[in-house]
Amino acid sequence: MFSKSCEYGLRAVLFIAQQSDKDTKVSMSTISEEINSPQAFTAKILQKLTKTQIVHSLKGPYGGFSILPEKMDTKLSEIVTILDGDSIYKGCALGLKQCDANSPCPLHFKFVEIRDNLQEMLETTSIKSVVNDLSLESIILKR
Fold first, then answer.
1. What SUPFAM superfamilies does the record point to (predicted)?
2. 142: alpha, beta or left? (left if phi > 0; alpha if psi -120 to 50)
3. Which one, of 60, 7, 48, 86, lies nearest residue 15 by Cα?
């Protein structure tokens, strides 16, 4: 449902958030290794997330990536939109270009409900709530 970029981005953000919650900055190589993502790919994703100020980057020997406390309330929908745009909320289940209520694909009406539920979940779930509620090791790492 999400692009690989978005999957890795969500996993990276949640890993960084978990470490930031412990007042720890993490290096690119650590993030890449922990979320099992190619380092160059992870770098591109984190560049986008840093540019949009979801992730904070500090250079130097004591540097690394972190998420500032005020960004922990960021909703997952914002991350998805940064990395994948809004097509996940509008796209066809079968990937057809022409699919809507007037010209539906065979799955259109069932998929609309799934998309709406996904959008609601992403818009009501913050980074902080995921870090607080879940055991991230079993969810995002080493997949």
1. Winged helix' DNA-binding domain
2. left
3. 7
Which pLDDT does position 97 carry in this prediction?
87
Domains identified in the chain, total number: 1
Contact 119, 86 (CB under 8 A): no
Which residue type, as a one-letter code, is found at position 10? L
Burial of 101: CB neighbours in 10 Å, binned 0-12, 13-18, 19+: exposed
The amino acid that residue 64 corresponds to is G
Q: Is residue 48 part of a domain?
A: yes
Mean pLDDT of all residues in 67-95: 92
Taking only the tens place, the pLDDT of each residue in 23-78 is: 999 999 999 999 999 999 999 999 999 999 999 999 988 889 999 999 999 999 99
- Angular region, 105: left φ>0, alpha ψ -120 to 50, beta rest: beta
The backbone torsions φ and ψ at residue 29, rounded to the nearest 5 degrees and listed phi first, read -65, -35
Within-domain flag for 142? no
pTM, entire model? 0.86
For residue 86, the enclosing domain spans 4-136
